[in-house]
Amino acid sequence: QIDSARLWGSIHETAQFGATAKGGVRRLTLSREDKQVRDWFRKACEDAGLEVHVDALGSQFGLRKGRDMSKLPVGIGSHLDTQPTGGKYDGILGTLGALEVIRTLNDAGIETEAPICVVNWTNEEGSRFAPAMMASAAYVGDFTTDDILSRKDAEGTTVGQALDGIGYRGDKPVGFQKLGCFVELHIEQGPILEAEGKTIGVVDSGQGVLWYDGKISGFESHAGSTPMPLRRDALATLSEIVLAMESIATKHGPNAVGTIGEAVIANPSRNVIPGEIAFTMDCRSADGAIMDALDRDLRAAIAEIAARRKVEVKIDLVWRKPPTHFDPKLIAAVENAAKTLGYSSRRITSGAGHDACNLNTIMPAAMVFVPCKDGISHNELEDATQGDCAAGTNVLMHTVLAIAGV
Amino acid sequence: QIDSARLWGSIHETAQFGATAKGGVRRLTLSREDKQVRDWFRKACEDAGLEVHVDALGSQFGLRKGRDMSKLPVGIGSHLDTQPTGGKYDGILGTLGALEVIRTLNDAGIETEAPICVVNWTNEEGSRFAPAMMASAAYVGDFTTDDILSRKDAEGTTVGQALDGIGYRGDKPVGFQKLGCFVELHIEQGPILEAEGKTIGVVDSGQGVLWYDGKISGFESHAGSTPMPLRRDALATLSEIVLAMESIATKHGPNAVGTIGEAVIANPSRNVIPGEIAFTMDCRSADGAIMDALDRDLRAAIAEIAARRKVEVKIDLVWRKPPTHFDPKLIAAVENAAKTLGYSSRRITSGAGHDACNLNTIMPAAMVFVPCKDGISHNELEDATQGDCAAGTNVLMHTVLAIAGV
Ligand SMILES: NC(=O)NCCC(=O)O
Ligand SMILES: NC(=O)NCCC(=O)O
Questions:
Q1: CA–CA separation, B349 vs B333, rounded Å?
Q2: Is B126 in the pocket of ligand 2 (CB under 6 A)?
Q3: Would you give the distance in Å from CA A281 to the centre of its chain?
Q4: pLDDT by residue (tens digit) across A279-302?
Q5: How many CB atoms sit inside 10 A of residue A203's CB?
Q6: Is the separation of the CB atoms in B350 and B243 below 8 Å?
Q7: pTM above 0.70?
Q8: Gyration radius (Cα) of chain A, Å
Q9: Which is one Pfam family of this protein (chains A, B) (predicted)?
């Protein structure tokens, strides 16, 4: 059994780095607050006897030796960055839970056969730089390191500059730390476990993701003197796209969602009809055929709206992540650990993307979910109980022990 | 006849203050560029022999003596501030046209019976600070000077701070310069004169304006893991409001327009459902009953949308300007001047608001319109011909001579 109070203490101690007035965390990737939590995490790993290295994209790897160093390490961990108005658990539970597993094994004097590697992946959230799960995507070869280093945030700062800014451009090449498999603990970020009164979600699959950048070019003109029929209003165009997205996702539901999270009017003014808007779109489904249908329907709807309104709409697909099907053997290991420990559980699909989804494309991976209050995430009100966090961490530890061998 | 080349030269010389790459002007009220054009204008007025004073809200008044100084001056002028992506003529033609009238009278050695006062009103555009036509509204007593001085821009800078920042908080109280009447020359900002091949618009009325500040409070949550039916999406709510506004204005048309020009998502992120949006609304009609209907229909539509989507929407009416009916005698004077000079003309309603609409509430006022290319305004592509600008300025001068007496 892990030390529930110590885990809870770590979660609340690190929540100070970017704490918001509403009890959440604002810790955008590679920000000053991210540096603070990274420094804390490095020291905690070293204090726990791990050998810590940082790769060229800033991901932190803390290695605990195994009896048989010819075996690839079992990877565990998650991320410590948050959304602009994020919570205290998303990513953090999985990273500090991994640290707690190491601390517990140390206290119990348990040596494993295979080594264990704790990881804090850079920019899982994808809020400052696209795509989400950025560093793990480069790790599995979906993008080159140079491509990722050149990605820019809204202010035009590149990933490379941001890494240098906080001193976290590591000296190890991406992929230097080989892993044999990866297990990630996370809050569910959805309402199912809580609603069904289950403690553990055994994640067997994850939704695929489509991310688009969009730009609408209408025509700026005077709000008072431009007759309604002569307008080429970029905001009215966006409004139709938002509602089309909503109805297309609903039509393909329940196994589909669609969101427009960002929309910025260029040079806004009360008495000017908006002429130009930049926006983003996020569509998801656990079913590849539905993802294709979402893409097709959305493009058709946008083309119709643009033509009717005599406005130009450009859509760029900037990221496509296919649905994830986790490794059957690891899924069984998680399920077994939950059972052995006496926790209620159910199989579940992840609505959110996770680094484990990327790793699963080149190695066996799996995930452990615990309930979060009202399914709320990506919100400062995100909440989870100490008991559930401890339960998930226990399942993580017993899964690791089963895979790594004692 | 005014000096067409000199007028054209002034317009293009001052267009350098805030010139944009696309040939427009960005000269927000009380900005550095606004100071530059004000300094230029003060010097030009002084060089033309005018006695220049600045009031507590920064409006510039240049007085040309008349033979009978017991008579109230004939006011002429407009504004020199622009939209964020504005043109070279909106307001500028009326202000520099007024200067050109003075210069022409000087050259011809013409003394008028009543004095003439050239005015550059502060913040006509209303883009940086609400309401539009701010200084002339205070001049006619719609707002106190202190109220206006405390209005804030998006950065939180007050009008008072902005005035001090460019050294244009004048030593004269608002209203110090009494005027007997006011005549304003302006580009039409709509398509009618050009379409009908008319040179002069004799403005007999102006649309009323409703300005609102709105705020939507939904609930931020995860774009991937929040099922469509459980969302309280602020952007989908705004989208319905935008389209409701469009259809309500269209339904009450052709004599009604409605625009949402500003909308800002708080803490936007690609994978977060928008939780909070601040926005503005602008509704207009030349018919007071239609203005009331627009307000009523809009509030009803918003209440229905908010209730259905379980989202809070707050609407504040921040400005209400009733429709304008200009002074019949001054309208006739403008019409007569156009006829005498041999220009084709038609009566016309102003779609935009103007300082003359405010002044009309306490003194006789009127306006002269000239065509602008494709009716485009509040756009960097705004354009007008040298010939039309000169024609309008000639009509202004002859109207002034008829009122002031030679
Ligand atoms: N787990 C999580 O919130 N990931 C962020 C990436 C995404 O799914 O949008
Ligand atoms: N003339 C003009 O563009 N005025 C700005 C105020 C408004 O009508 O919106």
A1: 17
A2: yes
A3: 16
A4: 999 999 999 999 999 999 999 999
A5: 26
A6: no
A7: yes
A8: 22
A9: Peptidase_M20
